[in-house]
Write a sequence for this structure.
């Protein structure tokens, strides 16, 4: 179960071109992505309407794609524009298309009722397209339901245990963030004042003593999007509420797009606004995040396998589970509303 | 779903002997094939009636097979003729047998109501047992429903796309065959007059200029059997309707026997009546067919996987889909009649 | 389907320690086993009650285990004794525990209603903890339902066929044992008087001529336990009913603990009371048993796959199937009674 009427991240814009077809599955629907001759990004169902051969085995011909089973050619609109040996093409010969928007280096797809798709609702991530921020485009695939990944990101107590060798500090398991319910989902702010800097932060920021640190998380329920501002600066200067002079900062993005009930695509960055020309620091940041994300994937995959043994077993909430329970309830409610409205089909 | 009361190809006659058991599954039923001491081909269910151990792990003892779990011995009639340590054998101790006929180098099995099995209805393939025709016995296994393979063989427009590197010509996607509904299924005749010969045909037939070519296909709905006459000769002499003087010809056979709902066994030959002593040409013909059949298997396997994602999605017919739709409807109708008659059980 | 209220073997006592967690699944329930600081064996469900992460990925801290997802710590009683960052722990925060008893070098687990667990009902296997008997601890995993393994052990006619290269003798298929229905299940006694000794027995026992042999089997329906006394001695001295002077003897144990509907854990020993200091003989006995058990696993796994093709097909009983049918009926009856009583849940 998932929200249908939402913008989900389909791919990094850099993943597609005019020369090759990218095949991925979103919300159980197989999709191909490519660019037209004009560079416009296109999303078609990966299923020829004729005999259901995958278009991902097809051939790009300019802006069109030809199914390589019986040669039917489809325009980016999904319309069949050629059936070999036939003078005319039946009107109903049409492949499903999906709204696809390129914004902030990402491709955003809409699998629900296309009439409801408003590109203005796509969340802004300007630092993904800014010279002031540097990052490596991250992607991993999960053998787990997307909500288990969301749970993980909505509760940082796990840092102390899952990531004891990477991100974790003993404090992470102890501190409780400020939580605020918002229109888009939930805001979760972690602030550590006058704390010891982890080694990488000390080095990168040139800090010699204690620091003030913050992790300010906005979780968007539609699209499963975590936006996190993380920063460190000299203590006693107001921290994240000040003008952040001398601070080093990160903008973290983690986005899950459900693939099937038990698998997900996961896009992420951990961009930084310092050491912009230092490959070693930049690669080191990305590598650390990747190691930590493997730690998450390991425990979440194992959790999924235990749940699969008996999905009916209830979970018992811990006091710090408020945010993830709020988001799960919100998703359930939106799904319920969507189903009641009947406006969930792609066409 | 499949027709039960039909002769299906079980194996090449050369695949079985008195010395070894061949195990294969037909229409969801596991079967063993072997030869008696007199060389007669036998088909028994691959399931000892006692505790359901597979007889394919058993031992041939003359014309009989002994289950190697508890030692029960079965005659080619399926009757248990020995239970170790017991003086008498209960009458009901019997393994299922299936009518099996050896004809034209093939073994034909009947999985339906044995009382309806009439060996006279097995299609004639005399060129499989003739010194005038040369071929290699072909077999491949498919991870796809047999009807998807039949669809493929009932529509040659795919030659231009799936086989663009082997059999395909641009014309294949354009030309429309003559189609005739028949009692056995459907006849589909492709004729190209005054066409350029493909290289192999030019060489093998010694043609210097244009040729007349034909592909005359008979599709038998019972047994999923394609018989194709293919030939090439000097143009303007009447082509396939003449006495075919100077022609080089092929007899192609493609037969699918359903294994399970989503897998099939596939037997084929591409026999030729020229260059009978030329191993290189003969092997070249077989190798080309094998490469082309891998191309089919690749796209059909991919098609099956897309269909499996949502089997309820409708397909949209192209104008040239008439033959395959006719055959699918005919199969559905026969299955319906069989189920109404109740005469489908093996015994 | 399986009996819930029974002691099942969970592991060899030597398999667990204070330093590592052993994860295994019994009756579909994932379980961890470990020892407390005092050496006491503990069984907890391998599912943190909080978010269902597996405790087998957790960390032992003295006698307790900490879930390494969010750091909840559990005592051997299953009670959560620490939630990081929280002053108090909700009472309902508790992991399922299971009665676990260490006896005769084995760990015995109770998955049913704990109120019914009476350690006094665990079968006695004193020779597993005696200097007079030597053995290697055996364990194999089966891709088959436990009842198919029980069937195999309840009928030795298979020795002549499955084990023709190891244990088998032609006689095994012919001879019929004495069978006695008992309170615990069934007793099956095989006695061969004045028989030729197999080579290993001749060597080990120093026999120069014929011998009397016996295989006395007790099958316990609760726990799926085979206890077999096997022995050989000079003929005409009364055999197993005498004082067995000069006999060489084995105590065989075979125990199946269902893992899932189609998999099982299998514990076994083939202990001997002779050549106690001879590593070569002792290893040779164990190796022979292992080879023979692979033969069983091969045919039983194949049998399971045939059954899975159509589980509705009836089996036809052979005259010697009485014991296995009796045990299957007894299991069915106990399961029926358990379900009627409603006393099957672990807590």
């Amino acid at each position: 179960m998932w929200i249908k009427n939402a913008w989900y991240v389909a791919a990094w814009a850099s993943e597609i071109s005019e020369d090759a077809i990218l095949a991925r599955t979103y919300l159980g629907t197989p999709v191909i992505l490519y660019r037209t001759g004009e560079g416009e990004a296109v999303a078609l169902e990966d299923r020829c309407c004729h005999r259901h051969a995958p278009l991902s085995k097809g051939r790009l011909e300019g802006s069109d794609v030809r199914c390589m089973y019986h040669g039917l050619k489809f325009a980016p609109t999904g319309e069949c524009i050629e059936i070999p040996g036939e003078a005319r093409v039946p009107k109903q010969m049409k492949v499903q298309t999906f709204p696809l928007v390129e914004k902030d280096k990402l491709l955003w797809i809409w699998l629900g009722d296309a009439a409801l798709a408003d590109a203005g609702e796509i969340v802004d991530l300007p630092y993904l397209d800014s010279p002031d921020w540097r990052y490596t485009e991250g992607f991993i695939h999960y053998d787990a339901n997307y909500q288990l990944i969301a749970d993980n990101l909505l509760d940082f107590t796990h840092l102390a245990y899952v990531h004891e060798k990477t991100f974790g500090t003993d404090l992470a398991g102890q501190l409780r963030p400020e939580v605020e319910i918002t229109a888009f989902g939930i805001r979760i702010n972690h602030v550590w004042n006058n704390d010891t800097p982890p080694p990488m932060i000390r080095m990168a920021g040139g800090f010699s003593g204690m620091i003030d640190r913050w992790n300010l998380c906005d979780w968007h329920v539609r699209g499963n999007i975590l936006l996190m501002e993380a920063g460190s600066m000299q203590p006693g200067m107001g921290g994240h509420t000040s003008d952040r002079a001398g601070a080093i900062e990160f903008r973290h993005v983690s986005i899950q797009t459900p693939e099937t009930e038990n698998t997900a695509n996961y896009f992420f960055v951990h961009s930084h606004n310092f050491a912009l020309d230092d490959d070693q620091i930049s690669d080191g940041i990305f590598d650390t995040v990747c190691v930590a994300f493997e730690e998450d994937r390991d425990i979440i995959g194992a959790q999924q396998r235990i749940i699969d043994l008996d999905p009916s077993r209830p979970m018992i909430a811990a006091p710090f589970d408020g945010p993830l329970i709020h988001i799960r309830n919100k998703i359930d409610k939106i799904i319920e509303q969507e189903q009641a409205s009947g406006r969930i089909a792609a066409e």
User: Anything to note?
Assistant: Chain C touches chain B through 28 residues (CB under 8 Å). Residues 279-309 of chain C form the longest helix (31 residues). The mean pLDDT of chain C is 94.
